[in-house]
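Notebook entry, structure prediction.
Reason for the run: the old model in the group folder had no record of what sequence produced it. Starting over properly, with the input documented here first.
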Amino acid sequence: MLTRDRIGALLMLVFSLFYWLHIDDIRVLPFQASSAMTGQTIPEILAVLGIGLSVLALLRPSSSEKLVLTGFQWRRAALICLLMIAYGFTVRPVGFLISTSLFLIGSIVVLGERRLWVILVASVPLVVLFWALMTQVLGVFIEPWPEFLGE
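New structure, fully documented this time:
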């Protein structure tokens, strides 16, 4: 019987298997080859844990709960998926700050918020703070502006 728990466990199993198959794509530097901990170690542990817990959840006796799809807001989910796809295509040419702000603003509007000040306060400062944290604290370069405005 397909319940929410089993569908979630099945999706997690597929994700974990896909994740495990792509761990070899993580490059290990020559001096790390004989180390106990490499860049592949934690992903391998996470993949094995994900597979194990998913299989455990699939094999456990099911409850009497049945899958109910009525009441799910398919239109909102589809719109947010479309926004994610558009974000993926625009983040490089438009820049991180603008595209991420627009993505969050669009997502907040799709979820039902209509007050402009709430939308702007919930999105723009968060994006700027995240960008500053990534670039200034962690040292990860993220292009903030469109390419034509760059230096």
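Summary: The radius of gyration is 21 Å.
The old model has been moved to the deprecated folder.
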